[in-house]
Design brief:
single chain, alpha/beta, Rossmann fold, 3 domains, seven-stranded antiparallel β-sheet, 13 helices, 24 strands, AB_hydrolase_fold, Esterase, signal, Mycobacterial_A85_antigen
Amino acid sequence: MTLPTRLLCSFLVLFCTRAPAQTSFSVLLPESLADSALDGRLLLLLSTDDTTEPRFQISDGPETQLFFGQNVENWKPGTPVTVDASTAYGYPLESLADLPNGSYQAQVLLHKYETFHRSDGHTVQLPMDRGEGQQWHRAPGNLISTPVAITLTGGRTAPIELAFDSAIPEIEEPEDTEYVKHIRIRSELLSAFWGRDMYLGAHVLLPEGWADHPEAKYPLAIMHGHFPADFGGWRTTPPDTTEPCAYSARFGLDCYNRIVDQEAYDLYRAWTGPDFPRVIAIEIQHANPYYDDSYAVNSENLGPYGDAITYELIPEIERQFRGIGEGWARFVYGGSTGGWEAMAVQVKYPTEYGGSYASCPDPIDFRAYTVVNLYEDANAYYLDSEFKRTERPAHRDSLGHVSSTLRESNQRELALGDRSRSGQQWDIWEAVYSPVGPDGYPLRIWDKVSGQINPEVAEYWRENYDLTHILQRDWSELAPDLRGKLNIYVGDMDNYYLNNAVYLAEKFLRSVDFGGEITYGDRDEHCWNGDPDQPNAISRLRYHRMFIPKWADKVVELAPAGADLTSWRY
């Protein structure tokens, strides 16, 4: 090594450890794993940590490992595809040209796409959910390879050869029990939109005594949220103390797994006890080609999920399990995504639901789209400045320490999939809220690389999905059906800054005497749900136990004259 090179290395370490720009990989699609050409997103995953597979080590935080993604179309079995700096976009390094020399565990994954011929005339390729809730690293049928050790050195010129060797197996359906039943229906509305059979499902928790009271009809408690594999937070046996303890780094609690199990068992004991309101509780499955749920509203890109859930799925559940079947006797609750959905369906279907309890809701006012004002800011990623490039934060802890930025979160999504196809948070907001673009995919709210905001798309979002704006615009019409039904709860140190939008919504709602609750948890993170007596680690596990009795106490004020308020309280 010459003296100038030594001096350069002392100041620019990466210059000496960076792999050459021609670093490339050749990925084989074996004939044994495909009987026809495939479309999808090819992901090359690299990790310096061999404790688990690289596909499970991608995150927004500083502990993330590396991956690079590119589209593949009409990939014929028995042929290889090249992945290199000219074809793949990566995270947290954008280019394979920036990959440091060293030893890695390498793995490839193909996230399969299906072609949809939609009723709006557009043909799109998207990853259909296959029962896993749109988890690219766990989706049944996706092709993967066994991780292998590789070493990158400055003298390597030949491509590194990798090949798929298996497909992720199917997921077993949950079985019915005495209390928990499962329902799945073909949606006529969604099937017509997507040009193929589309289904909605739900996990149904029956009230104590349901079989012994065949003449009784019941209110419907609807918990919205991310894709539930089964009815969550429900356990009919005490925690298994022989199971090893699992530490929760988020909450700083040892044996948190046993705490979770105990809370689930406590729900069972309360549910079957003498004083709990007798209602039917459901958790909806509405995963779709863009995300693990639909946000429960109608959308140009996702189709009429709001109508399908409200007018197809819910009436069928009430028919099968003896629900009362009237709007006053249905109420909604949930946190985060589910919090937004609970508030949104109450606003958009004001007479079809009799109360909403929105915890830590996704942004309900796009003047505080987390930390971005979509109507005034020019760029989502950077603070307005003539000279500086100060990045906006995406995630913080209860002390305000930031672990990722908006740019980084969106870079990860773009590496997972272009055209809003990552199956992740920013992309699903875009897919739900945006109009359809000329290519059939959602119009971008901002450029995914630069962060430049599109004001025309922002205006469309405002008129159709900004819940505070809709309430302000239409309050005179909505007030008779909404007063007393809207309730919001959020921690003032929400990890995703969701409390900022609640402040703005509160200012309007209190000005019109909306008749509900809005409360904040001091230093509570995501997803505080309004319990002033419990830390977030506990309150987040008590949605059913909190909101079902709360609604049952309030329904007397909201129900119409002559409503049955007693027969289901045995």
